[in-house]
Amino acid sequence: MRSFEDLPASWNLQRVHACRTGTLYQFNKPQDLHDPHSWGMSFVIHYNRDVDVLDWVALRERVVRIFSSDDELKRVVTFVPYAEVGTDFIVQSKPPYDGGYFLSSLHEWTTEGDTCRPPEGCESSYAELQAAVERVISALPAAERPLLEPVIRSTFTMNAGSWLQFVGDDGWVLYELEISTAHIERFLVAPLPSSSSMGP
Questions:
Q1: Which residues of the chain have pLDDT under 70?
Q2: Whole-model pTM above 0.85?
Q3: How far apart are CA 27 and CA 102, in angstroms?
C-alpha cells in the first residue's frame, strides 16, 4: 500500500476543502474499471486527522456487508467501491452531477417543492429503500447498533449531502457514507469489533 505522499504528481490534485476525516482533493482520472458510473473525475481524501483510514474502511465495509446480506437492499442499492485504499488516503469516483438524482434533491422537493421534480420511479424506490433500511436497523447486533444506526440513518434517511443518487433502472448508487463529527467521535471511542467477531 502506498501513502498519500507517494501519489503521482501527474494526478494534479486540486484541494477542495477540509473535511471531517482529513482533506478532500479532486482530479481528472481515466475511467475507473471498478465503477461503471465513473465519468473521469475522482476524489482523494487524505486522512490527516484523528481517524485512521483502515478503521474507516472497516466501518464502511461493515455497512456494505450488512446491506449486501439483505436481498431487497441488494436490489435497490449499489455501493461504489473505492478505487484505491492507501495507508492514509482513499480514492473514490466523484458522483456525476448529471448522472442521477441526488437524495438531497428529493428531500428539497418533498419539503419545499422548489427543486427539480424527481424522475419516474424515484419516490417509490425511495419508499422501498426506507422500508429495507428500517428492517436492517432493527436487526443490528446490540453491540454495534449505537455506532452503526446513526451512520446508516444519516446516509439513507437524513442525507443532505450528495453521495447517494437515484439512477433509474439501476436504483440507488452510494459513493460514501454520510457522517457527522459526533459519528467520528463515537467511532474513535468505540470502534467496531474485529471482523472475525462480526455477524453477517
A1: 30-38, 114-115, 158-162, 190-200
A2: no
A3: 21
Per residue in 100-135, pLDDT (tens digit) is: 888 888 888 877 776 678 888 888 998 988 898 999
Q: For the chain, give me the number of helices (H) and strands (E)?
A: 6, 9
- Single-letter amino acid, residue 187: F
Q: Is the backbone of residue 131 left (phi > 0), alpha (psi -120 to 50) or beta? A: alpha
Place of cell 452531477: 97
C-alpha cell, 118: 424527481
CA distance 109 to 117: 7
Q: What are phi and psi of 148, to 5 degrees?
A: -80, -35
Phi, psi of 117 (to 5 degrees): -60, 135
CB 37 within 8 A of CB 60: no
Strands 77-79 and 172-174: parallel
d(CA 69, CA 103): 23
Distance CA 158, CA 152 (A): 9
Phi, psi at residue 110, to the nearest 5°? Answer: -75, -25
User: pLDDT (tens digit, 9 = 90+) per residue, 6-18?
Assistant: 998 888 999 999 9
